[in-house]
Structure formats: structure tokens, C-alpha cells
Amino acid sequence: MIKRLHLYFLIAGACISLHVNAQDAISYQTPPKEIADLLLAKPTPGVSIDGKAEWILFSERNSYPSVEELAMPEYRIAGLRLNPNNYSPSRQNFINNFSLKNIKSNQTSPVTGLPTPLYAGNILWNPAENKIAFTNTTQKGVDLYIIDIATKKATKINKAYLNVVLGSGLTWLNDNTIIYRTVTKPASAAPAKPLMPKGPTIQQNLGKAAPSATFQDLIKSPFDEQLFEFFGTSQLVKNTSGIETPVGKPAIYSSVSLSPDKNYMMIETIRKPFSYLVSAGGFPSTVTITDLAGKTVKVIAELPSAEGTPSGYDNTQNIPRGFDWRSDEAATVVWAKPLDSGLIKKNVPFHDAVYALSAPFTGSEKELFKTQTRYRGVQWGNATLALVMEGLRSKQTNKVSVYNPTTGNIEELYTRNQTDAYGNPGTPVTTKNKFGRQVVHVVDNGTKLLMNNPVGSSEKGDLPFLAKFDLSSKKNEIIWRSAEGTYEYVSDVIDPDKLVLLTRKESQKLVPNYYIKNLILRVADRPVTNFSNPYPSLDGITKEKISYKRADGVDLTGDLYLPKGYNKEKDGPLPTLIWAYPREFNSAADAAQIRGSKDKFTAINWGSPIYWVTRGYAILDNAEMPIVAKDGKKPNDTFVEQLKLNAEAAINKLSDLGVGDKNRMAVGGHSYGAFMTANLLAHTNLFAAGIARSGAYNRTLTPFGFQNEERTYWQAPQMYYEMSPFSYADKIKTPILLIHGDSDDNPGTFPINSERLFNAIKGAGGTTRFVFLPYEAHGYRGKENILHTLWEEDQWLEKYVKNKK
Asked: Which of 441, 683, 778, 788 is catalytic?
């Protein structure tokens, strides 16, 4: 007996020893100081400017919340993540201070009356722009505050806590009255989960196709249904000078919008049965027109669950959709219906029709126009001008037509491929009409549109521009463009007729700031902000946009960063990190276009690879990884082959420049970039190491499509298999660092992807490390988690790249 016990303890001890060795359970670590200082630098304040460019509201934020904040109570139901203690989303980025600046006097003043601590969000100016509403989230509930511009004082105006689970719902009725949603019961009254369920959770399907994307946080049980109904239910109220008046009855409001004349509301409410397959946005709903007291005027539509949406990106349910108000009329509702039963491949001359119904909503709907492809919305202008958008995601096409609401005539303005960055004419500048709605503004006696392109891609890189689009000749004339050597874009058009603009200008050395520019008077630009450099330690690093070709002739670019004081002749080739995100193109010419600007100020977010330029690495950021349709095939049919071509071209270019050491190259990416990384390591020996954050590695887990791939697994099983690095996990011998948030909320990148790939690589004898970040979603937020992530990445690069043996 003693011998048997001794043997038991030996075996148990061995198991414990193996467990300890298999894990690396360490406490939170911090990266080197040069990296930590960059991450924790105080962010530049957010800017919100009134339409007359008289006042600026500055919004300050903390760098990152602590993991402890992320660990607050959370329910995950119906595709939502909510805090059960205060009827609000559980994951928000809050503002912690406000200040106001008068542009004319150049004086900045603090806003008084702010709660302490401040956790603000949902900023909304009133129509006269003399008051600003915002919400403040506390442990117990969400309050509503109003900032009076004249006194620069904030005042709490609500009595009942707000319910912002399904959005803030803040809407100004007039300058003194605001509409919002309030809770109907205290959070403490939420249903308690019974220890003994009433029975098993059962789902069934009786032969009806219901393809669905892989949504996360769905309803999974009858108890989840109870919770969603409890936390989703709210009461609409009108608040005038602090006096709250209920509007209608409590319901699960998914949206509330005022008619332009502010005499009606269009309300969409969610109803049962709740779906276990799609998120709350796809639940059955009712679209209703009510008066301002909440009394029903007209039920516009009873919409079914989105479960029946046919597979395919341009397919839609055979039901009305896209309900909205016409901005140029007092109270007219518009919506679209498919003419192809929702199936885009059906051979019909028109695929959608758009209808309208005007107040008092007693007549019949009127057809306005039809679209040849899938309707995407209208930008209203006036009685003779509106712009109709349509297109096809599967073919990456956008079409814009000019529509005359009076005559019904519709005529194409332009069609372009949405990946054709050079051919983008911009978006129409809008102004407020008599209803206070933003409508398309025409210039030169109504003959031209003013077009703003804040990117302005060109063969010289991104150079934003302002243009006039001639409605007759259908040509775009650029009237102002960012000067080469800077990156300046139009943030707002203050006066479209006098061409007074608000711009944001930056360069490699010029910190981004805002200016007032007058294109007619041509006076000196007037600065309205004076932000300082939050990253002084990056002074001296160099950045350039490099161009190169891959073996099949496709032109590629990337942003090359080199360390401060680096001398190629003296210091030689550097360890290098290539960071990228693949994108699909139907055209090789579009894939070859230059995107981005070498003249942007170098800014860093939590996920940037630029940190390592301070550690002696060459960084190729935004390395182009296009996947192009070839020989009549879909782009993804040659996905892996094209990844290799892209990677080889980047490595060869860096080596030819003499700045990158071919033997010390790392590759990395986040999400689809992580998927790219794992594929490159599974199919090539080009890299010394890889970093893959929050990726999807087994495409069979997204069987109804992913990214721009609309074919299902059963339509293209071989493609799904070959694109999955999990299928080739035994070939991944290059060291790979896998990082994933344990609360990833992105469709398709469930944490099980990283868990299973790690186990597969480990089982096949590969070199890998898996870091599972507590409470993190698809984008990381917790300060301790991000610092630790940077430490992990730095250790990995130092060991397997810089000091590679």
C-alpha cells in the first residue's frame, strides 16, 4: 500500500511538473520605457466645432482604462455587451474633461458643473448650437447633462436614468427640448438566473434555409431572452428645461427619428420571437409613424427576423428596407423594396424600387424610381435635385445618379469601382435647409456640386482636395488640393458659397492642427488649435513611402520607418518588422494604386508596429498585400500564391535598399493580418518570426463567407481548406506568437481560433506562444493588457529576430 501511494505521488508530481513547464504563468509585464512612454502619452483632445466656426468643444480622454474597469459586470446577449448595473454598454471609451474655446477671442475656458469623476459620451449640439448635450455614465446609471455655451456650465437635467443599451437615442426636438429613452425599472429588478432551468434549450429548423454570419454573444437560452427584454425595454421622454414628459408606452426601441418638420416620429420597435441565430438588429420589428405624444398614426411595416436573408453579399430579404425621412420635405417617408425577390442573380432590368409616403400617411405609397443594382440610399437636395446611390458588393461597384424629385427623371452621374482610389470624386458638401437637415449644396447657379475628398489618392500619394462637379459635363474640377509635403484635408465647409473652410493640416514635422482657410480672399490661414507633439521621442526617425513590384508585375507600396540617427553605410541592414492587412481587388490596376501619404505626422495607437523603430528595427507598415482576381477566377482562388508574391517583393525591396536584413525579417498583423501571418509562416520560410493577433485560422468556422468572400464552404470547400492555416499547422515551424482577447466580439475571430491553432502547432512540435488577454474584445483597451502585449511582442522580436542565432 505504501509503495502504491509513493508511486501515486511520483506520478502526480510529474504531472504537476509538466503542467508548470507547459505554462508560463507570469504577472503583468511592461515593455521597455521607450515603448511604454509612447503608449501612455496623453492623447490630443477631440475637437467638435459649431457650424459657424465660433466655438470649439475640446474633449479629453485618458490613454487607456485599467483592466479592472474592463472586468466590471457584463451580460453578453443578442449581440450586445451591457453593464447590468446601469443600462449601458459595458465597453466604452469615455471623455474625462471638457473645455470651450471661442475662436474669435482665442480664449479657452473650462466647463464648470461637470460631475466628478466624468465618464462622458454622446455629444450632441442643439439646433441653434448654443447648447451641448452629453451623457455621463456612473456605476448606478446614465445621466444627461446640458452645457450652456454662454455660461460654460454643465447642468444635469434628467430625473430617471437613461437606457442606452440600444443606443443613446438623443434627439433635439428644438433648442430647449430633447428626446431620449429612460429605464422603466431599477437594474436590481432584473430577472435572477434560476439554478434549475425549466428545461433544455431547443432550436429547430423545418426545412427553411437560414444561412447566417458567425455572430458572437447571441441569445442562447430562455433566460437570455428574459434579460434582453428587461434591459432592452425603455420609455421615451421629452425633457423641456428639466421637466420630463413620457411619450407613448414602454417598448424595445431600436430607433427613433423625427420628421424634418418635427411633427412626427418614425419609430422602430423590436418584438418577439427573439432570434438565437442573429443579433438584436435582425430581430422581428415594427416600423411605425407616431405623433409627438407617441400616438400611432400609421404602421409602415411589420418586418420578420433577418434569419431568412439569403446567402450572398448582394442578396437581401424580400421585404421593405432602408426606411428614412426625405430631408427636403416636411414629413415624407422613403424606403426600398427588391424587384428580384431579394436574389441579385435573377435576370431583371431593375433590382430595387424606392417608394415614398407623405403626411398625413393616409394615401398609397408612391414609386419614386428604380435602380439597376442594389439601392444604397439617397442624399436629398431640393425639389429638383437628389443623388441616388446604388452598387454591388460582389463586384465592388458604386454608382451615383442625379434624380429630379419633381419630374422623376434619373440620370447616371458616374460609376466606379470602389477599389479605384484615384477615381473617387469625393462626397457632396451639404448645408442645412429650412428644416435644419443636411442637404446637398449646389454652387454656380445650381450647375455644380461641391465635392470634398479628405483622402485624395493620387500617383503622388494621398493629397486631399475640394472640387466642383459639373452636373452637365459630369467632370470634376479640383479647385483646391493639399500642398505636396503636407497632408491637409477639409474637415468642414463653413461657407460653401464664399469657400470658407475648416481644414486639418499636418506633415512629418507639423503636429496636426485645425485652420480656417478662405479660398476666395486667399488670406493667411488662421489657426484655431495649437496642439503640441505628444511623441517627442519620435523626433528624428525617418519615414518614406517606398514603391516596388511583385514578380507578376503588380505595383506595391509601404511606409518605411527607420531609427533616429540610422546610417546605412555605418549600421548596415537592420532587423525588420513587416506589418500588413490583405485586401481583395477585382482589378490589378486598382491594386497597384498608391494609398496613404508619406507626409502624415507619425501617430501611434496601441496596435501600431512603429514602437519598434525606437528599438533599432526597420518597420514596413501598411505593406500592400493585394489579392487580385486573375484569369476569370475569384481573388481568393490564388490567395496563398499571391501572399507569397507580396511578401517576397517586400523583403527583396528592403534588402535591395540595404536597410533590411533578409535573415532577420518578421511579419505581423491583427485580425485578417494575423490570418495572413499564419498563412505566410505555414507556406514559406521567408521570415524569422511572426506575430498574429486576434486572427481567424480555420475558415470552416465561418462557412457562410468572410471578408469579401461570399461563396459558402459548400460551394468552395477546397478554397476554404487551402486558405486555412490550421490545415497546415504541422508546417508552421517558424516561431509564431499568438495573442487573442478572451472576450473577442468580432464575427469570425472567436478565441477558439487561436486556442486550436496553438494546440495544433504545439502538437506538431512547432515553436509557439499563446497569450490570452483577460476581458479584451477584438480591439484591446486595458492598459495592463496592452503594456503586456507590447512586452510579449518585444521579447519575441528580440529573441527570434534581432538576436536570431
From this structure: 778
Report DSSP state, residue 413.
E
DSSP conformation class of 120? E
User: Residue 100's beta-bridge partner residues?
Assistant: 57, 109
Catalytic pick from 559, 621, 637, 744?
744
Among all chains, which residue has been given the C-alpha cell 480656417? 516
Cα(103)–Cα(574) distance, integer angstroms: 47
Q: What is the DSSP string of 367-401?
A: EEEEESSEEEEEEEEETTEEEEEEEETTTTEEEEE
d(CA 321, CA 662) in angstroms, rounded, equals: 53
776: region left, alpha or beta (phi > 0 left; psi from -120 to 50 alpha): beta
Peptide bond into 534 cis (omega under 30): no
Nearest to residue 451, comparing CAs of 477, 474, 433, 487? 477
* 778 is an active site residue: yes
Tell me the residue ranges of DSSP E strands in 658-800. 660-670, 689-693, 736-741, 768-773
Binning the chain into helix, strand and coil, the percentages to the nearest 5 are 20, 35, 45
Q: 693 near 671, Cβ under 8 Å?
A: yes
Q: Are 494 and 53 in contact (CB under 8 A)?
A: yes
Q: Any idea what the Cα angle at residue 387 is, between residues 349 and 375, rounded to 5°? A: 40
Rounded CA gap, 468 and 479, in Å?
A: 7
Per the residue annotation, which of 168, 671, 694, 743 is the catalytic one?
Answer: 671
Give, for 402, the enclosing helix (H) or strand (E).
strand 397-403
CA distance 804 to 704: 41
The parts of the chain modelled with pLDDT lower than 50 are 1-21
C-alpha cell at 638: 490564388
CB atoms within 10 A of CB 483: 12
603, 606, 691 from 739: Cα distances, Å: 23, 14, 8
* pLDDT number for residue 211: 75
d(Cα 773, Cα 71) in Å, to the nearest integer? 12
HEC per residue, 128-150 = CCCEEEEEEECCCCEEEEEEECC
C-alpha to C-alpha distance for 412 and 394, rounded to whole angstroms: 20
**Is the distance from CB of 582 to CB of 633 less than 8 angstroms?**
no
- Assigned C-alpha cell, 597: 501619404
**pLDDT value for 302:** 97
563-581 tens-digit pLDDT: 999 999 999 999 999 999 9
pTM over 0.90: yes
Name the grid cell of 213: 454570419
Distances (CA, A) of 800 to 432, 691, 793: 58, 11, 11
Within 13 Å, how many C-alpha atoms sit on residue 305's CB side? Answer: 17
The span from the CA of 290 to the CA of 298, in Å, is: 7
Q: How far apart are CA 367 and CA 355, in angstroms?
A: 4
List the end-to-end C-alpha distance of the chain, in Å, as a whole number.
Answer: 52
Name the phi and psi angles at 44, rounded to 5. -65, 140
The grid cell for 363 is 394615401
For residue 270, the 8-state DSSP code is E
Q: What are phi and psi of 689, to 5 degrees?
A: -165, 165
Catalytic residue status for 671 = yes
**Which runs of consecutive H residues, i.e. helices, occur in 23-75?**
33-39, 67-70
Paired sense of beta strands 513-518 and 321-325, if any: unpaired
Distance between CA atoms of residues 315 and 297, nearest Å: 32
Cα–Cα nearest to 689, from 612, 798, 801: 801
| Pairing label, strands 131-137, 142-148 | antiparallel
Residue found by looking up cell 464552404 in the block = 713
- Determine phi and psi for 113, rounding to 5 degrees: 80, 10
With a CB cutoff of 8 Å and minimum separation 6, the contacts of 207 are none
